[in-house]
What does this fold into?
Amino acid sequence: MSKDSLSVTDNRTGRTYELPIEQGTIRAMDLRGIKVDDSDFGLMTYDPAFTNTASCKSRITFIDGDQGILNYRGYPIEQLAERGNYLETAYLILNGELPTKAQYDDWVYNVTHHTMVHENIKELMGGFRYDAHPMGMLVSTVGALSTFYPEAKHIHDPDNRRKQIFRLIAKMPTLAAFTYRHSVGLPYAYPDNELSYSGNFLQMMFRVTEVKYRVNPVLERALEVLFILHADHEQNCSTSAMRGVGSSEVDPYSATAAAVAALYGPLHGGANEAVLRMLSEIGSKQRVPQFIKAVKESGGDVRLMGFGHRVYKNYDPRAKIIKIMADRVFEVTARNPYLDIALELERIALEDEYFVKRKLYPNVDFYSGLIYQAMGFPVDLFPVLFAIPRTSGWLAQWQEMLEDKDQRIARPRQIYLGSGRRDYVPLEARG
Ligand code: CMC
It folds into this structure.
């Protein structure tokens, strides 16, 4: 008997099966042959929220949640954040290797020259109420891009895909900045090709009447690092949405709109926004113990936002980098007054048995909002700031899915617990 196998005895029948183990995994379909009799459908696994199911094989991002390790294509996140920039990282995530100088120049040129959006997008934006949430606007406008680029539906053509990837990565900051300008009633600022990816984004956000916007290099670098940290995170909720929706072979704009929608939720990318609202509600350092008590007594209803993670059962390595970077940013901006509340929350939570027992540590969203706020971004724009860099991860995962021969349209099974067959009762005869 091969060592790399699992022997399973079905006690209903007394039969034993040998299932191959590959890469620490058994194939769920191998269970289908385990049946009570010929009419039996066969055994399935039940895994709500996919807590123990690998939905794909991937070569993009590696996470060791127990040790707090995050690598993109093998490169530790700490090295990329220290020495790389966002577009270089996006290239790495999408292509598997860091670019050569020529590849990098070509990549940056292409992304830079696809930043403009069709003027009709502005009109579309103009249709939203003044207080529309920017993530709602982003979901709609990213989805709308599919109508401007109908050729994007040819998803099996690699050249065509490449072009849509340039467009999506390039236009995301433009759309993001437009959502903000709409909400404050400022005219939209067009891209400036002489600036870096993050510098141009700052310019489109904050330029008012200056002929040439002067980007603060510390803030530009901080944003660049935040973008690197958010670029990919393997099979999270929004990436699974991207892959799941993309598996129907829809165009990448529609699939990305679905991913943005998934990111919007407060348990995912909306958490950075929720953290700031939580800090504002707590209001002062003195009220932290009271809040922690409320979290513990709520039975899971009140959460310490920015804490906990499905995969990390240790300090999120991204949170560590952000916490260090916050000091550099606060030297330029004013110190965010909520920082003291956040530090106190972390201090108490890391000592408290409730959090220790459940291995709840600060995640990427705990400190990022403090930096965004200090830089002048409004709170409801925070999830949008997550969506901009995550677009490269979504697209890399989407492309990997399309090229993976194992993949087909995503279609989970269910355990049906509803009513058995019954006959229709006319309205007048119902009790
Ligand atoms: N505050 C208080 N209790 C918590 C928290 C929290 N933030 N997170 C988890 N728990 C408790 C939860 O109540 C449960 O307790 P019990 O075993 O007594 O029922 C236990 O810890 C396990 O929680 P879970 O909900 O089963 O864990 P999960 O893996 O399904 O959820 C999570 C992961 C990130 C959704 C969750 O930790 C959470 O809601 N955190 C707050 C929201 C947040 O910060 N999200 C950002 C995640 S990182 C960036 C991203 O992915 O977008």
